[in-house]
Amino acid sequence: MSKHIRAMLATLLIVTGVLVFLPSGYVSAGGAVENPGFERGEDEVPLGWNLTGNATRVDTPPIYAGNWSARIIGEGDMLTQWVGNISAGTIFEAWGWIHVSGNVTGVIAVDFWYRTEDVESQLSSTAILSATDTGGIYVQKAGLMQAPTQTTHVRIRLLGTGWSDGAEVRFDEIGFWVPAGGYCFIATAAYGSPMAEEIQILREFRDAYLITNPVGKALVDLYYRVSPPMAEFITGHPGLKPIVRATLVPAVAMSTVAVNTTPVQKAAMIGVLALIVVALAVWATKRRGRGPQYT
Fold it and tell me: Rounded to an integer, what distance in angstroms lies between the CA atom of residue 195 and that of residue 181?
């Protein structure tokens, strides 16, 4: 094994470990959403969100990430955020984590608007991301939507419907984001649908480990700058799709491990990879030290 191959293996190990163990940055994880994890605010009022009824932020469990989550407990409770500078015609992704207990449906409602000082007009139907009783855990809901012509703002509302006594809904890590260069990327071209299971896994990995830190965000931005022409070429040559899907298997496998394992399990796997790299390096060194064998 040459020193170049050993260097590549070591680099891959280091990059994988850094991406998996980098701490979350709750603000950047929300993309265009301000204060997506409700970490910033004064007492029970989260920065960037308008509260209606008894909606509030709380620092008591259950919390998906960080130290705070948003809570609603009855009809009329709602958190609202307006996000400006939305590019018309662009495909966006909205997502959020919902914890529902009792007989109620937790809802993330998203719609596009044209807003000026004098005019306010809703341009789209309302996209609904919802969950019913989640069995004591947070579940992620996500969806794709396209901003209509003339869009300037998007409105994001967190609410509940069909309330019963004692029910509660929590929200955490709300996001609304479009990659640089649009939502045209190689994986979507290879799998044929932005909602394919493999793409959902890659999206979860991106949201949890890449756009939550400066290094990962730079990698994502670079990917979305260079991928559109490649994705267009793949779309125009269907015979390439199986080949591209095969090359994406390691990335999908790594992403699956990253999003579906505990920190202890991740540490164990990183340790195994480290041992493999060390063992290969030792084997290569000993083999080189013996020199060529002649018979």
Answer: 19
Task: Kindly state the greatest CA–CA separation across the chain.
Answer: 91
CA 228 – CA 208 distance, rounded (Å): 23
Measured torsion, CA atoms of residues 16, 18, 20, 23, in degrees rounded to the nearest 10: -170
Nearest CA to 122 among 152, 92, 95, 96?
A: 152
pLDDT of residue 123: 97
- pLDDT value, residue 179: 47
d(CA 178, CA 224): 10
Calculate the CA dihedral of residues 259, 146, 179, 246 and round it to 10 degrees: 60
Please identify which residue in the block is written with the tokens 């469990």.
Answer: 61
Task: Annotate 69-96 with b (16+ C-beta within 10 A) or e (fewer).
Answer: bbbbbbeebbbebebeebeeeeebbbbb
Domain 33-177, second-level architecture: Sandwich (2.60)
Domain spans, the chain = 1-31+180-287, 33-177
How far is residue 150's CA from residue 138's CA, in Å, rounded to a whole number? 35
Beta-bridge partners for 70: 57, 171
Contact criterion met (CB below 8 Å) for 95 and 37: no
pTM: 0.57
Intervals of the chain under pLDDT 70: 1-31, 178-185, 192-195, 207, 211-212, 217, 220-221, 224-228, 266, 289-295
- Confidence at residue 218, expressed as pLDDT on a 0 to 100 scale: 73
Give the pLDDT confidence score for residue 22 in this predicted structure. 38
Residue 263, helix vs strand vs coil: helix
**Buried b or exposed e, range 35-47, using 16+ CB within 10 angstroms:** bbbbbeeeeeebe
